[in-house]
Each structure stands twice: as structure tokens, then as C-alpha cells.
Amino acid sequence: MLDDLHGEEANRFWRDECRALAARLLNLGYSDSAMRQEVADFQGAVQAELWASAHQEEPARREGY
Predict the structure, then answer these.
(1) Which of helix, strand or coil describes residue 51?
(2) Both ends of the chain: CA-CA distance in Å?
(3) What is the C-alpha separation between 52 and 28, in angstroms, rounded?
(4) Fewest 10 Å CB contacts: which of 5, 26, 47, 64?
(5) Which of 62, 42, 61 is nearest to 2 (CA)?
(6) Backbone phi and psi for residue 55, each to the nearest 5 degrees, phi listed first
(7) Taking Cα atoms as reference points, which of 19, 65, 61 lies closest to residue 39?
């Protein structure tokens, strides 16, 4: 989803996803600190995927594909 969204729309989507994850984890009984760590780990994993995806496309763009 984040690949297709930009600007404020992407920010809003991302905040909503993280808040929803936090709420689900708390409802499952996670402590506040455990929930925060899980959300931080999720954010890091998503950022890593977005970065990897963006950098996989760069060689093709440079080569004119």
C-alpha cells in the first residue's frame, strides 16, 4: 500500500496502521513496553522493505528498462 501512496495520504495510512497494530497488541494482553517494541520492530521491517524495493528498481531505471 505504501508504494502507491504519497505525502499526507501515506502519512495518515501509516499512522493508522501503527495505531491499529498497537491497539490489537494491547487487546491481546501485551504490556505497554512490549507493544511499543513490537510496533517499532514492525516499523523497522516495513522501512527496510520499502528501502530494498526502491533500490531494486534503481538498476532497471538506470538501464532504461
Answers:
(1) helix
(2) 23
(3) 31
(4) 64
(5) 42
(6) -80, -20
(7) 19
What the block records as the C-alpha cell of 53 is 524495493
Return all residues near 14 (Cβ < 8 A) that are at least 6 apart.
2
**Contacts (Cβ under 8 Å, ≥6 apart) of 44:** none
Alpha helices in the chain (DSSP H): 7-27, 32-62
Residue 58: alpha-carbon gap to chain centroid: 20
Q: What is the pLDDT of residue 64?
A: 57
Walking along the chain (65 residues) 10 residues at a time, the average pLDDT comes out as 83 96 98 98 94 74 55
Q: Are 43 and 18 in contact (CB under 8 A)?
A: yes
User: Residue 46 corresponds to which cell in the numbers above?
Assistant: 516495513
Q: Is pTM, for the whole model, over 0.90?
A: no
